[in-house]
Amino acid sequence: MLVSACATTPTQSVVERLDPDTATTVTVLNKPVELVAETLHNAGGDPFAFIGPFETDRMGNRTRYLWMAAPSVQNARLEPRLLCDGQPVALPPVNEGMTHLGLAHPPYAKPAPWSVEWYFQLPPETLQCLADAQRVTVETHADTGQSDQFSVDSKGLTTLKAFNSH
């Protein structure tokens, strides 16, 4: 009876782990939010992008960030655009790399070898918007003017609510 009770317990959507090389505690989603392509200019391209908030805790100094990953776009601009219910969200980029974040290891696994990853500071109001959104979209842009759009609806954003209340 106990075994079946344990087997039905839902998986934690928010987990904490320790970066073994920097001793920084990292709080992440168990699985990043998956966005599906709405428009994809490369017909055979990867139809998935991902977002994942994470928080670093270095000796009580907590900072929240947003990780994004999308298929690489030839001649892509450096940063994608994030839309929360159709409205662009300003995200300050983190260009200094993992050491600036206090991490030696990325918070989320790279989804595919051809994925490009970005890191941004995550203001509280932006996280609240994402957690409450009916739709979140990531747009990647090529210098040619072509763009790919990946979206997720509110049903796929429930883990952001859990992260926001963590």
Task: Explain this structure.
There is one protein chain. The protein is about 15% helix and about 40% strand. Strands 1, 2, 3, 4, 5, 6, 7, 8, 9 and 10 form a 10-stranded antiparallel β-sheet that branches. The chain is of the alpha+beta class and about 170 residues long. A hairpin with a 2-residue loop joins β4 (about 50-60) and β5. It starts with a helix and ends with a helix. Mean pLDDT is about 85; it is low at about 1-10. The protein has one domain (about 1-165).
| Structural class estimated from helices and strands | alpha+beta
Give the distance, in angstroms, between the N- and C-terminal Cα atoms: 31 Å
User: How large a portion of the residues is in β-strands, by DSSP E?
Assistant: 35-45%
Radius of gyration: 17 Å
Sequence stretches where pLDDT stays below 50 over 5 or more residues: 1-9
Biggest sheet features: 10 strands, antiparallel
Number of strands: 10
Order of helices and strands: HEEEEEEEHEHEEH
| Residues in helices, as a percent range | 10-25%
Structural domains: how many = 1
